[in-house]
Amino acid sequence: MNEPSVVAVERERYGSKAKILAVGKEAKDMVGKTPGNIEAIRPMKDGVIADFDMTEKMIRYFIEKTHRRKSFLRPRIIISVPYGLTQVERKAVRESALSAGAREVFLIEEPMAAAIGASLP
Fold first, then answer.
1. pTM of the entire predicted model
2. What is the average pLDDT across 41-69?
3. Which domains are seen in the chain, by residue range?
4. Is residue 31 helix, strand or coil?
5. How many Cβ atoms are within 10 Å of 35's Cβ, its own excluded?
6. pLDDT, tens digit, 9 for 90 and up, residues 68-82
7. Considering all CA atoms of the chain, what is the largest pairwise distance in Å, rounded to the nearest integer?
8. How far is CA 88 from CA 20, 51, 91, 94, 95, in A?
9. What is the pLDDT of residue 41?
10. Would you state the pLDDT for residue 15?
11. Bridge partners of 9?
């Protein structure tokens, strides 16, 4: 799955509660084309979690989208992260994915993921 880490949310008029409208590419496509009460949030910026709760919801959405249904299946997932992420930042990404429903989480640095994707030796 190759999706941008963007979540489109609709904010309540008098409150901080947010309703998720779209995730990933669909949310990114909404940027600049929506009313003022709808905003695009980037819960992960440069591989670092800026909003833990929204990151967890985004990952949960991706897991459910991949499996086409809500189930009790707890998948093993791989997340690519920027090169040079600190151990604390790596742990936050891993914990967010585990909280979203992953059984195991493997982190791979983006340059390595790109090399594997390009079938480099």
1. 0.76
2. 84
3. 63-121 (3.30.420.40)
4. coil
5. 7
6. 665 667 889 999 999
7. 55
8. 28, 15, 5, 10, 10
9. 86
10. 60
11. 20, 39
Structural tokens at position 75: 């998948």
- Mean pLDDT in the chain? 85
Q: In this structure, which amino acid lies at residue 93?
A: V
**Residue 31 CB: number of other CB atoms within 10 A?**
12
Determine the pLDDT at residue 14: 63
Mean pLDDT of 15-28: 83
**What's CA 85's distance to the chain center, in Å?**
16
Instruction: Write the DSSP symbol of residue 60.
Output: H
Nearest to 82 by CA among 121, 43, 45: 45
The Cα-based distances of 91 to 10, 42, 52, 101 in angstroms read: 29, 19, 12, 16
